[in-house]
């Protein structure tokens, strides 16, 4: 069984992330979306909220599972007995960062391989941070995120204005 892990903070998950999952779900028997609690970032959504938003946004993909985790990705991969990582790339900057992360993961877990997937051109500019900023300032993010995420962003930012 070909299994891969698609890790990230997904704060929030975007249509670009979903596009990569849809395309890769035809390549792998199972994909585990590993939602990390990133200690270096202040998240808008809690880990549990992000897991639920991804589950809602991927319910049409039978071979996608979603789990939250803390710690090293290499430890998560060992625990799940998975040696393939999926990473999306939008730009050269993403490649530089992701190639370094790939090398670090290879050092920590030599049998691991990272597959880089180029973003669909319509999502090249879409980032979680850009989506959050646009939503905070009242912008329409409907075409950038799944419906459940749009609704949750509106609720979060409305609550913050109260």
UniProtKB/TrEMBL annotation:
Substrate binds at residues 9, 41, 73, 87. The keyword Nucleotidyltransferase applies. GO terms for biological process: coenzyme A biosynthetic process. Keywords: ATP-binding, Coenzyme A biosynthesis, Cytoplasm, Magnesium, Nucleotide-binding, Nucleotidyltransferase, Transferase. One of its GO terms (molecular function) is pantetheine-phosphate adenylyltransferase activity. The record marks 17 as: Transition state stabilizer. This is Phosphopantetheine adenylyltransferase.
